[in-house]
Amino acid sequence: MALLDIKELHATIDEDDGAKAILKGIDLTIRPGEVHAVMGPNGAGKSTLSNVIAGRPGYTVTQGSVTYDGADLLEMEADERARAGLFLAFQYPVEIPGVATATFLKTAINARRKAAGEPEIEALDFLKLMKSTSKRLGVPEDMLKRPVNVGFSGGEKKRVEVLQMAMLEPRLCVLDETDSGLDIDALKVVADGVNALRAPDRGMLVITHYQRLLDYIVPDVVHVLADGRIVKTGDKTLAQELEAKGYAEFTGAAA
């Protein structure tokens, strides 16, 4: 059974002068164990796709369906989706002043456990898990005491997001241009953390503008998104083709 099954998805974004159509018929299926990449020019609808999957406010689905692990994802609130094992890594992670990163992680883990009918994690078990995971991912312990993302560099924010993913163990990871603003060293650290999470029962959707991320997170399937539609699908060599030729032929085809 598919982990994520999107059929004929149309969606609009709410703007001051009315709704603007962004997604114009997306079909996409991710099975457990697969890593899919979505590439495309600016304004193609890549971030809108990730936001609609995550249930972010400000978007309206006007047609189509999204099924996650056999359930109607569109009928679930954003927090329900997260508790059900969906994780969105933001292009620009938000700051949460006054909430320590460790406290945030523990609260999120317990919310997932409660949804699964499990008891809250013991304090000692949480500390052991956090320390071992942060060490494996190269996240300094002092960062865990600081408020979530406050004063963090771009690379530090992305590292902490990977730490969140590793500790929450989601079924579906959606990475929205997680390579944005990263230098090559930070990119490698983030990619190593993501690759460590690849598993037979987990799916990933990697959204990116550039091919360089896919040198480190090698996808099983690559999709080209242009003007709200997937206009071509292939293997990892498609990403290399896009890097060499750009998106001109696809934007022309989508127009």
From TrEMBL:
GO molecular function per UniProt: ATP binding; ATP hydrolysis activity
Key word Nucleotide-binding present: yes
Occurrences of domain ABC transporter (ranges): 4-252
Keyword Nucleotide-binding: yes
Swiss-Prot/TrEMBL keywords: ATP-binding, Nucleotide-binding
Superkingdom field: Bacteria
A Pfam family assignment: ABC_tran
InterPro entries named among the record's database cross-references: AAA+_ATPase (IPR003593), ABC_transporter-like_ATP-bd (IPR003439), ABC_transporter-like_CS (IPR017871), FeS-cluster_ATPase_SufC (IPR010230), P-loop_NTPase (IPR027417)
Family: Belongs to the ABC transporter superfamily. Ycf16 family.
Name of the protein described by the UniProt record: Fe-S cluster assembly ATP-binding protein
Annotated source species: Rhodospira trueperi
